[in-house]
Write a structure and sequence with these properties.
mainly alpha; EC 2.4.2.52; Probable 2-(5''-triphosphoribosyl)-3'-dephosphocoenzyme-A synthase; glycosyltransferase activity; binds adenine; ATP-binding; nucleotide-binding; 68% helix; 13 helices; binds ligand LTSJ6FE6
């Protein structure tokens, strides 16, 4: 009996594997400020690491189907956008069945779904800038069948005029391209270890993101604490340095006190890890 070889998998299956791996790596990364990780539940009463893993695995069929839809339609356009919307909503339902109604990965389905589809459209052109540009072109199209729920993101958009997950994708994931990925590479070059490089990438994303999860839970005060605290850790030398670690601990305590969970930043770290692995992998 031969073990299954990687190239026996279809392109769609490989992309779904990569997306789920990115979600599991994000969940396991520790210590993340106020987020679910190996240490505990962060600022969440209804989440834990096992649930994050189960949720990530439940999304594999949706990611595979999104990649297959991209291969079938073969170009950026409304038919692909609306197929992704339908599959994304089915993915959300699978997530809610697995988590008994808790939103674990709504933002991640959106970001990773777009990126998986963008990679499947043109696997030979998957540099970070090429794949995020294609994803943005899909995100800019209007899905006529999308319901308009008064989501937390929609509520803080009304209250504070914040730009959330939709705009992040439509702009081509600037938090990933301009913050997360450059920091990931910089910290790797300093040879402080992969886990610290990933923590630094998360912090870099947090420095500038309008995380609607934080805004909904803790308002502009919480968002400012998140952005300034993350910058302070990086300024102190990042999560591998002693002073950086102390600042990271302080940021964790501060965000926990404010009930401010940076769930959007966590989703974008998963997107960052996915894009990082994509380059040259297909
Ligand atoms: C276009 C959609 C993204 C919908 O957007 P909208 O803003 O209307 O919806 P939300 O559900 O509020 O936000 C989506 C999630 O995106 C994450 N996020 C937040 N800010 C940003 C940001 N600036 N950039 C990128 N991503 C961001 C965030 O996800 C994390 O937060 C989750 C928990 O959030 P919340 O529900 O508020 O839960 P709690 O505060 O914990 O609730 P309580 O405990 O208080 O009750 C966390 O798990 C992370 O996932 C936002 O939640 C898109 O989703 C959409 O249209 N979907 C429809 C299907 C579709 O078209 N799919 C396309 C497939 S490609
Ligand atoms: N690790 C995490 N903790 C809480 N919410 C999240 N949303 C996505 N990843 C998360």
């Amino acid at each position: 009996m031969h073990a299954l070889k990687l190239h026996d998998l279809t392109l769609a299956e490989r992309l779904a594997d990569m997306a789920v791996d990115a979600l599991i790596d994000e969940a396991d990364l520790s210590p993340k400020p106020a987020l679910v990780d190996r240490r505990g539940n962060g600022a969440h009463t209804d989440l834990h690491l096992g649930l994050m893993h189960a949720s990530a695995l439940s999304l594999w069929p949706a990611f595979k189907e999104m990649a297959e839809a991209a291969i079938e339609f073969g170009e950026v356009g409304l038919p692909l956008r609306e197929a992704l919307g339908r599959i994304g909503r089915e993915g959300e339902q699978a997530m809610f069945v697995t988590t008994s109604g808790v939103n674990t990965h709504r933002g991640a389905i959106w970001a990773l779904g777009l990126l998986v589809a963008a990679a499947a459209l043109q696997p030979e052109s998957c540099t970070a800038s090429a794949v995020t540009l294609r994803a943005a072109r899909v995100a800019l199209l209007n899905d006529r069948y999308a319901p308009q729920p008064l989501s937390h993101g929609a509520q803080v958009a009304q209250r504070y005029g914040a730009r959330g997950a939709r705009e992040e994708a439509q702009l081509g994931f600037p938090s990933v391209l301009q913050r997360g990925l450059p920091q990931l590479k910089k910290s790797r070059l300093q040879q402080h270890g992969e886990q610290n490089a990933r923590l630094d990438a998360l912090l870099a994303i947090m420095t500038d993101l309008a995380d609607t999860c934080v805004l909904y839970r803790a308002g502009p005060e919480g968002l400012q604490a998140m952005q300034q605290g993350a910058q302070a850790v990086l300024d102190a030398g990042g999560s591998a340095s002693l002073t950086g670690r102390r600042q990271l601990h302080e940021l964790d305590q501060q965000l926990l006190a404010l009930n401010a969970s940076p769930g959007g930043a966590a989703d974008l770290l998963a997107a960052c890890l996915f894009i990082d692995r994509l380059d040259g992998a297909l």
